[in-house]
Structures are given as structure tokens and as C-alpha cells.
Amino acid sequence: MTAVTWDAPDGDHPARRAVRAAMDAAAAGRKQEWLALFAPDAVIEDPVGPSMLDPEGKGHRGPDGIERFWDENIARVRKYHFRVSDSFANGPACANVVTITATLDGGTTLTIDCLTVYTVDDDGLITSFRAHWEPDRVMATLTSP
């Protein structure tokens, strides 16, 4: 199985290109490539609002915050599979309906059904990444090998 299954409209759009590049880099564990996709003043809200990943719900901001987000969250996943079932690109943004299956060390898996919204600047760099998902629903999907 490939790391990204794109079962959605895939017309060329700067924000959609950024989405695909971010998913590919995350799935392959290419940290520096992933970090280079973000503008210096970018913000990540994953999930949007207060959560165990962002207790204050203010997002992960700037290069240091975004790198910390990678180290504390993305790097902890051994294997990703992204399935994009729909995609809406317009203006500087792309919204996607995504199911993410994450496999952790030891083989535990979890599934995140979410809506992601990426916004890019004129250079195609990500200025905002917002993921809408419910932590309780994700925790209910935990499976052990």
C-alpha cells in the first residue's frame, strides 16, 4: 500500500501541491523537507482548539513551534497512510477530507478522520495548516497488535 491514496479531485493548485508534498514528506519521515514547506510565520492547529497536543489551543507557531510539532507528534509515528477522499481547492487554500491511519511503535494503530485546511502564500509556502478532528473519536480507534 502506498503512503498516500488520493481518491479526490487532483487539479493543479498551489495549496493542493503543498498538501501532497506535506503528506509525502511526513509519511516518508523527511523532516527537513516537510519543514521547508512552511512560511516563517506559519501556524499549525492540529487539532483546532485546545487538546492534549496543544493545551491552550493557540497552535504551533513559527519555525521553532512547527519543528517541535514534528518532533513531538509526527516523528512518534512509525508508519502513516493518508487517504484523501475529497479535496476542494480555491483561493489560497485547499480543504481535504482525509482518513489518516497511524501505526505507532509496537504496532498499535489509530485512525484519524478529519478535515484539513492548508493555506499558502504567493510562493506556495504553507502559512496555515488547520486539522479538524475530535481527540475522543481518535482514541476510540486505538487497536493493539
From TrEMBL:
Query: Which protein is depicted?
Result: Nuclear transport factor 2 family protein
InterPro entries attached to this UniProt entry: NTF2-like_dom_sf (IPR032710), SnoaL-like (IPR037401)
The stretch of residues making up the signal peptide is: none
Which residue range or ranges hold the SnoaL-like domain? 19-128
Q: By its UniProt entry, which SUPFAM superfamilies does this protein fall under?
A: NTF2-like
Species the sequence originates in: Actinomadura montaniterrae
Which Pfam families does UniProt cross-reference here?
SnoaL_2 (PF12680)
Cited Gene3D superfamilies = 3.10.450.50
